[in-house]
């Protein structure tokens, strides 16, 4: 959940920050991630997915952040469904169903973000 929160915060920063292009993608990633609570996670996530390091802009980094968040959320939801299928206690089943509904909402928000997941 912290990963989704962190990446969602990054998307918010990029959406509010005017779109600029810089010549060094790493510099922009460092600068953007310095404003987040999970700096190293932000940097490693964006660098792992950045397709065009020589020319990165905020719009591209926001798209990458949304895609990373969507991938993590869908992977987590699949794992939750595996746990749900194995759960035998009613409390555990209800807890996992509640969590699944929250992830459904989050995934829907990411898909509706306009960044093309």
Automatic annotation (TrEMBL):
Protein's UniProt name: Pectinesterase inhibitor domain-containing protein
Keyword Cell membrane set for record: no
One annotated GO molecular function: enzyme inhibitor activity
Keyword Zinc-finger attached: no
Coiled coil (UniProt feature): none
InterPro entries in the cross-refs: Invertase/methylesterase_inhib, PCW_Enzyme_Inhibitor, Pectinesterase_inhib_dom
A matching Pfam family: PMEI
Similarity remark: Belongs to the PMEI family.
Domain Pectinesterase inhibitor: 27-112
Keyword terms of this UniProt record: Disulfide bond, Signal
Signal sequence segment: 1-24
